[in-house]
Amino acid sequence: MALLRFPLRLNKVLTSPAISTSIRSVSSLKYDGIKVSLTDNPKVIPPHDKLIFGQVFTDHMLTINWSHDDGWNTPHIVPYDHLSISPAAACFHYAVECFEGMKAYRGVDDKIRLFRPMENMKRLNNSARAASLPEFDGEEFVKCLKELVRIDQKWIPAHSTKCSLYIRPTFIATEPIIGVQKCRNALLYCINCPVGPYFPKGTFNPVKLYADPAFVRAWHGGVGESKMGGNYGPTIRVQTLAESEKNCDQVLWLYGEDRQLTEVGTMNIFMHWINEDGDPEIATPPLNGIILPGVTRDSLLALGKTWGTHKISERKITMDDIKIALAEGRIKEMFGAGTACVVCPISDILYLNESLHIPTMENGPEVAKRFYKELTDIQYGVVEHDWTVVVD
């Protein structure tokens, strides 16, 4: 198997220079000395073809407490259970929390791999800063995650490149005081669940999008680039509207008077088209503070740059751009990309009561399928790559 290495440009996350959210850290998060308590009642593992995304959890979880006075405590791996937290905790009242989404894969060689875990750590630390939560050592936390995955490795589906173990690190303020202030106590924990395809339709079935400029997911000067619950909860109402009244699968979030494309549901959005200059181009909106810097997004940009067949761009895309390009027959494909779904084709956009058909499936979809194959080949060990970290 060939070992591939690509030069990568790290995501630049925009932060407000006018706001300082630094928190004193007394002791650093360390993997050494991690304590493990194994369950006496292991669960029954469901067949991989019966998995529903995010509904079944593994036997164990990771917990690490932090306090302003003592810093980071010893990491613990314990049986999966409910948390005991004060009902006055700041995470419940003021959404002082953030989280991540990543996966472990059982490869064709039976090795277990994480995919670019340090990118998730950088993003989680960026989100923590936005929530005024303490920073942590990402490399040490990855060691803890690897130990958790190693202990529950039997939960990672084998002989399937459609299944994986979804890893959900979560960081919450546990300070039991009513009042908007920096927390003095926090909990960093992680739960895992075996998963199949994210969408009920399965892998690579196209989705229809609902785009309404009346609804906005994020705005400049806010925290749209952070992975925080407050960015997701308010979208449920619009998602429900899209499904129940508009016969759509996901929401295409627009921004500004020119109705820029930003994200699709929980995914970044890509377009394969012939641009205004007549060149084949793969484009995605730029990271401008209102778009989550997706790890899958960054990976597809890097992969595309190795092909030498398309211009790879981070550029503003508006709904007018879409309508004009469709009328001129220049759009080839549109698709979403993210950790949960990997790559998801887009077939239609319902915009201002007009249904715009995107000819993604009629065009293969050539680029979307190539991205999906190249990315999953790396994740499942078909192609060795330094993006992956083997769990020994």
Description:
With 392 residues, this protein is of the alpha+beta class. It folds into 2 domains: 3-196, D-amino Acid Aminotransferase, Chain A, domain 1; 207-379, Alpha-Beta Barrel (D-amino Acid Aminotransferase, Chain A, domain 2). It is built from 7 helices and 21 strands. Strands 2, 3, 4, 5, 6, 7, 8, 9, 10 and 21 form a 10-stranded mixed beta sheet that branches. A 6-stranded mixed β-barrel has the order 11-12-13-14-17-18, surrounded by 4 helices. A two-stranded parallel sheet has the order 1-20. β14 and β15 form a beta hairpin. α2 packs across α3 (138-151). It is globular and about 60 Å long. 42% of the residues are buried. The model is unreliable at 1-25 (pLDDT under 50).
Domain tally: 2
Unreliable runs = 1-25
According to CATH, the homologous superfamily of the largest domain is Aminotransferase class 4, branched-chain amino acid transferase, N-terminal domain
Taking the sheet with the most strands, its summary is:
10 strands, mixed
The CATH class of the largest domain is: Alpha Beta
How far apart, in Å, are the first and last alpha carbons?
Answer: 19 Å
Number of strands: 21
Mean pLDDT: 93
CA-atom Rg in angstroms: 21 Å
Reading the helices and strands in chain order gives EEEEEHEEEHHEEEHEEEEHEHEEEHEE
Please give the CATH architecture of the largest domain.
2-Layer Sandwich
CATH topology of the largest domain: D-amino Acid Aminotransferase, Chain A, domain 1
